[in-house]
Amino acid sequence: MCQGCFVIIIAGTIDFKDNETRDLAVDQSRALQEATRRDEAGCEAYYFGPDPFDGHRIQVYELWADEPSLDAHFQHRNYRSMLALLSELGIVATTTAKFRCDLSEPVYDETFTPRADFFTSQNAE
User: Fold this and answer.
1) Cα–Cα distance for residue pair 122/125, rounded to 1 Å
2) Start-end of H helices in 40-97
3) Which pTM was predicted?
4) What dotted CATH number matches 7-101?
5) Which residues share a beta bridge with 14?
6) How big, in percent rounded to 5, are the helix, strand and coil portions of the chain?
7) How far apart (Å, rounded) are the C-alpha atoms in residues 87 and 107?
8) Domain map (residue ranges) of the chain
9) How many CB atoms lie under 10 A from the CB of residue 29?
10) What is the DSSP secondary structure assignment for residue 51, as one 8-state letter?
11) Hey, which residues does 12 pair with through a beta bridge?
């Protein structure tokens, strides 16, 4: 991923009935996560992992290069297979959102100081 590039971030949670089911979902989806990263153009990150503080929950993080890549993912067999797998295991609740990011910058400046402001952008105020 390049600094300053347009990206789409998908972030969310998926809840299951218990820790055991959540762990099954993480383990059984590993191959689909790998295939999505490897085989789908525009996929920069695709992570469905255990929430360290909620034993029933998976944290979702995806990073896509653009809308056509995300649209192709929604048509891809990896997406359909992941949806089928998670549904079969029994999703109790889910909250997922997509974010279009038109500006990205490093968190740390040249002195390794974390910065909340967008300090390298020409549009920075």
Assistant:
1) 9
2) 67-75, 77-89
3) 0.87
4) 3.30.70.100
5) 58, 94
6) 35, 30, 35
7) 36
8) 7-101
9) 20
10) -
11) 60, 96
